[in-house]
Amino acid sequence: MRTETDQGFDCGMIPTTQTSKPVVSLCEGCSTDDANNPCIEVGAQKQETDGTTVYCSSGKKLEMVKEAGENCNNDYECLGYICENQICTELKEKETPPIEVVPPVGPSTQGGVNLILPIVFLVVIGAIFILDAIFSFSKKASKKLKKPKKHCQECGATLAPEDDFCPECGEKV
To answer: From CA 44, how far away is CA 53, in angstroms rounded?
Structure first.
């Protein structure tokens, strides 16, 4: 590694008394004192250790960024990177129209399904009970509507509903 000393360059060998040569810089922007970032390109901004922000001008000089309202020629001269009509402008948030709240139509969307399902369930169960009652009644009613079997009072023989005389004893029914 080559480092510059008062006596010349130290290449890991014995120091020389040779005079120092100018170091050629490859920086095509602005040179800084920052060891991590010794060169920034034209148009770039950099925050200094004291908190201030500088930019590298087209003249390759570090200059303080400009606040909103100050004159400018390029966006990078402004703190917010916006130079409109040669004046630094603050970054404006996009205006959004107010959101119109439309009330829901029908069941509530916040649990409306949870309310509808029990109601449907109760209606179905109720319909089942009603139908059961109707069919139970109709079975009982049909049994009552059927003509009971007739018996002969003399001999006790079973008679057909259309019989007027007992087939066993011949008595009139």
So the answer is: 10
Burial class (CB in 10 A: 0-12, 13-18, 19+), 159: middle
- Asked if residue 165 lies in contact with residue 173, where contact means CB atoms within 8 angstroms, the answer is yes
152 pLDDT exceeds 80? yes
Compute the half-sphere exposure of residue 2: CA atoms within 13 Å on the CB side of its CA.
Answer: 5
- Encode pLDDT of 66-93 as tens digits: 999 999 999 999 988 899 999 999 876 6
DSSP per-residue string spanning 12-60: SS----PPPPPPPP--SSEE-S-SS--EE-TT-EEE-TTS-EEEE-TTS
Spell out the alpha helix ranges (H) of 22-156.
Answer: 112-145
Reported pTM: 0.40
Cα of 4 vs its chain's centroid, Å: 59
Distances (CA, A) of 88 to 62, 73, 133, 140: 18, 9, 85, 96
Q: What separation, in Å, do the N-terminal and C-terminal C-alpha atoms of the chain show?
A: 140
Do 168 and 157 meet the contact criterion of CB atoms below 8 Å apart? yes
